[in-house]
């Protein structure tokens, strides 16, 4: 496995962890597992079942010294990388398992990590059990009484999964974790009536519809446009609101900014070359 890297990526924090020493190999099972059904008058038949989930265990070791075959920059304290994996396993957050240079890129949960010493070198021999992860959503089913004609009834809408925002979360990171596409953060914001995708808070409960059910992303409010604008866009906005204005204090902004957006606006202006005197006017 020379030249390959075994990579784990935390879907919540985007933190990346590379195994210090590349394992000798790996084995992946992919496809649908056949389901055997006994049919009256026909006998046993095999039908395609649901796609299988990854169920793999990686055997590796974390070095206590700078071996020449270890990944460049790897820690020589084996408990440092171990702590990272234990923390991710404890959190229950799905992680990406990636083998560089191959199509292997699976969303998994880390089962309890096993480790120990064997030869008196101080190296830790580590077992990493991985279980494939699939996001579950609940759906409503209409039931009718046996023997009666089906009646026209109003069914409950499908209930999407939910997620409670944690410290350090962003909508783009959540969209990447749930849908595999960080660019869907605008649609996720619209699905939860969030006007500014940059302003979310710990404890906020997000509804996570199926990707097909996500609404169109809303056009950013003018305050958000100003805060995230480039210098050229800022100049265009200035001309639109106050033709001929040469400094920020000359502009008559037709927006109302929150405290956070106001701070971000000041930072953006200064980053684009406006002076503090221009801002403070």
Can you describe this structure?
This protein is α+β, with helices and mostly antiparallel strands and 281 residues long. It is built from 7 helices and 11 strands. The strands form 3 sheets. Strands 1, 2, 5, 6, 7, 8 and 9 form a 7-stranded antiparallel β-sheet that branches. β8 (114-116) and β9 (124-132) form a beta hairpin. α2 (171-179) packs across α3 (185-191). The longest helix is centred in the N-terminal third of the chain and has 13 residues, at 79-91. The termini are far apart. Residues 150-159 and 249-256 have low confidence and may be disordered.
Topology:
Blueprint: E1 6-10, E2 16-18, E3 32-39, E4 43-51, E5 55-62, H1 79-91, E6 95-99, E7 105-110, E8 114-116, E9 124-132, E10 161-164, H2 171-179, H3 185-191, E11 205-208, H4 222-227, H5 231-241, H6 259-271, H7 276-280
Antiparallel strand pairs: 1-2, 1-6, 3-4, 5-9, 6-7, 7-9, 8-9, 10-11
How do you describe this structure in short?
The protein is an alpha+beta fold and 281 residues long. The protein has seven helices and eleven strands.
